[in-house]
Amino acid sequence: MARSVSYVSAAKLVSMARGDPRLAIIDVRDEERSYQAHIAGSHHFASGGFAARMPELAQAATASGKDTLVFHCALSQVRGPSCARMFSDYLSETKEDSGIKNIMVLERGFNGWEVSGQPVCRCTDAPCKGTCAST
């Protein structure tokens, strides 16, 4: 069954993510993640190699009990939505019982997140441990 892709605002994502270990934020920005900040705890799957890494993402999400994935890029106008749709199609085509129920895109992307005053992280850990949030 194809999963629909919906959009979520930064404010709504903050309230959804608070204390919910089943939600994962997927950052599909490419090289700009290395010199810009990122959303604390986000997982980096660069859009340039995203198609090849979809099995890895599905396996990691399933293994860690994620049921909601929120994709974003800088503005969530091209890469974020494209990767979200591609991943949704991948799950439908492979018919994997991944447990992923919701695939979303962060409205206005990372830039909108940061401009709206949401916390960002500037660590260089890979993956980000999510303990570094600061504004």
TrEMBL record:
User: Is Oxidoreductase one of the keywords UniProt gives this record?
Assistant: yes
What Enzyme Commission number(s) does the record list for this chain? 1.20.4.1
A GO cellular-component term linked to this record = cytoplasm
**Stretches assigned to the Rhodanese domain:** 19-122
The molecular function terms in GO held by this entry are: arsenate reductase (glutaredoxin) activity; protein tyrosine phosphatase activity
Write out the entry's keywords from A to Z.
Oxidoreductase
UniProt-listed InterPro entries: Rhodanese-like_dom, Rhodanese-like_dom_sf
> Which reaction(s) are listed as its catalytic activity?
[glutaredoxin]-dithiol + arsenate + glutathione + H(+) = glutathionyl-S-S-[glutaredoxin] + arsenite + H2O
Entry keyword Oxidoreductase:
yes
What this chain does, per the entry, is described as: Possesses phosphatase activity towards p-nitrophenyl phosphate in vitro.
Q: What is this protein called?
A: arsenate reductase (glutathione/glutaredoxin)
**Protein species of origin:** Arundo donax
